Amino acid sequence: MKKTFLGVLAASVTSAMILAGCNGSEEAASGGGQTKTIKVANYFAEDHPQNIALKEKFKTMVEEESGGQLKVQIYANSTLGAEKEFYDGVRNGTIEMGIPGLIMQADIPKMGVPEWPFLFRDFEHVKNVLNGPIGEEITADLEPKHGVTPLAWSANGFRMFSSNRTIESMEDFDGLRLRMPNIPNYIKLGESLGANVSPLPISEVFTALEQNVVDAQDNPIATLRNSAYYEVQSDVLESKHMFSPNIYIINTKFFNSLTEEQQDIIQNAAKEAAEYEFDLLEKSYEEDKKFLQENGIKFTTPDEKFAKEMEEAAKPVYDDVFKENEWAEELVEKIKAE
Description:
There is one protein chain. The radius of gyration is 25 Å and the shape is globular. Helix content is 49%, strand content 18%. Strand 1, helix 2 and strand 2 form a beta-alpha-beta unit. It is built from 14 helices and nine strands. Strands 1, 2, 3, 4, 5, 6, 7, 8 and 9 form a nine-stranded mixed sheet that branches. It has one domain: 3-Layer(aba) Sandwich (D-Maltodextrin-Binding Protein, domain 2), CATH 3.40.190.
């Protein structure tokens, strides 16, 4: 009887050791059994190319390639606050990731360079510049100054003016109440064109247009469609007066807390998602234009004279940035020569 009891006890101990070994292996394989959640905040509508790329590429790749160690939650449409709020959230670590525009340029002037007026020729020019050494130079101060790590450049698109009236000459800007982001070079550009600029966060734009607080706004037409501004506007001027990129950023402390393998997964997923978003946005232009025209929006393409006048009017923006930043003129020349 005693022998039988000891045999059962030994078998039980052996089973427990095997189970413990299995559990230990599983925990080792899954990073200690811990699942980390990455909240990704942005201000785009759910069906904007930014969020399509996040869902179809970034979220899928990160969750599958991490074996479930990393989970991605996407917060679109300013759910976690307007751009400044969620950018600050990424900086202080309450939000792991974000896709802001270039709101950080107030503290880091080089981050404003891609949005200087009439700087880029087309999407290919943008990608060559931002995905090369110039893009690295522009983002160099993000981590040391703001505690966020840049992962990839994505596209908001070439900005155009939408309005409640037709704009077909410089005179049509006179007295136009124009919403622009609260960023100095935007405001300077609007004023240089002759408009009365009202800085507002993007979350307030639709209501301001609807209530006639402002007459016009500037954004790529994908935003005009996906944020339904076409419901409260009648016209689009295809000015392409500046390009707006977005940037995938992640809180540096959070990023450094991950394994090297997890960091690689996130970086690769961000680059693939951003590249996919660029393609989606570029290809969607004609489709978006057709949709907007079918919903009553009139498009005006500036003739050569009008286009040149707008570019000439933008010179005070460059006068200011060249005066304030000794590196600016050389950097502009490098971009134009790319």
